[in-house]
Design a protein that fits this description.
By secondary structure, the protein is mainly β. The chain folds into two domains: about 5-95, TATA-Binding Protein (2-Layer Sandwich), CATH 3.30.310; about 105-200, no CATH class. About 15% of the residues lie in helices and about 40% in strands. It has helices at about 20-35, 75-80, 145-155; strands at about 5-10, 15-20, 40-45, 45-50, 55-60, 65-70, 125-130, 135-140, 160-170, 170-180, 185-190, 195-200. The strands form two sheets. Strands 1-2-6-5-4-3 form a six-stranded antiparallel beta sheet, with helices on both faces. Strands 7-8-12-11-10-9 form a six-stranded antiparallel beta sheet, covered by helices on one side. The longest helix is centred in the N-terminal third of the chain and has 14 residues, at about 20-35. The radius of gyration is 17 Å and the shape is globular. It starts with 5 loop residues before the first strand and ends with a strand.
Length: about 200
């Protein structure tokens, strides 16, 4: 990590940094990871994925924080390095639908969502609306930057297609769809994050 890095939250496979500036952390890791034999697999808008030495990870910079998630590939994935998935296709386990700590909609008493839609671990919701046409609500927890990292990973899953991602005025909006006719929006600003889902009743 860069000198004077400060962690606001940490857990196995997860690190949230609030110092130094996100751009500085991203630039530092993009420079030092390849020198340590890690490959940068994909990068865009302050976000990149990396892989190497049997690990995959993702770095996501926002206006106020930087989220780093990482996980170790299974031994079957690393037996043949030519067939090991890259971080662009194997999202860190801390932010995937297969994560045993991820919450199903029913865990939160939400009924009208796409079949494969999940919520980040430790999610708490407010302003929940759950009509047959699709649920919507506001995340009280986790932090917005964690919500953004989670859904960037979840929505790269084969069950979803990201149709657009835009950042304006400090807010990032991701729109997506699935093969069953559902569409949705995740909107994340420095202080708040929301979701809105739309399906056919």
């Amino acid at each position: 990590m860069p000198p004077r890095s400060a962690s606001r939250s940490a857990a196995p496979g997860f690190l949230l940094l609030n110092a130094p500036a996100s751009a500085q952390i991203v630039e530092y890791l993009q420079r030092t990871l390849p020198a340590a034999a890690y490959q940068i697999d994909f990068q865009t808008l302050g976000t990149f994925t990396f892989s190497g030495k049997g690990w995959v990870g993702q770095v996501i910079g926002s206006e106020n924080d930087t989220v780093i998630t990482f996980s170790q590939l299974s031994s079957s994935d690393t037996t043949d390095s030519t067939s090991a998935p890259s971080a662009a296709t194997a999202a860190p386990s801390a932010a995937t639908a297969a994560d045993p700590e991820a919450l199903s909609p029913l865990d939160l008493n939400v009924n009208h969502t796409p079949f494969f839609f999940r919520f980040p671990p430790d999610t708490t919701l407010a302003d929940l609306r759950d009509p047959p046409t699709g649920a919507s609500g506001t995340f009280v927890a986790p932090l917005p930057v964690v919500v953004l990292a989670y859904y960037r990973a979840l929505l790269s899953n084969v069950h979803f297609t990201v149709t657009d991602e835009q950042t304006a005025g400090g807010a990032t909006t991701i729109t997506f769809a699935d093969d069953d006719g559902w569409t949705g929006t995740i909107t994340v600003s420095p202080d708040t994050s929301t979701f809105a889902l739309h399906g056919t009743p």
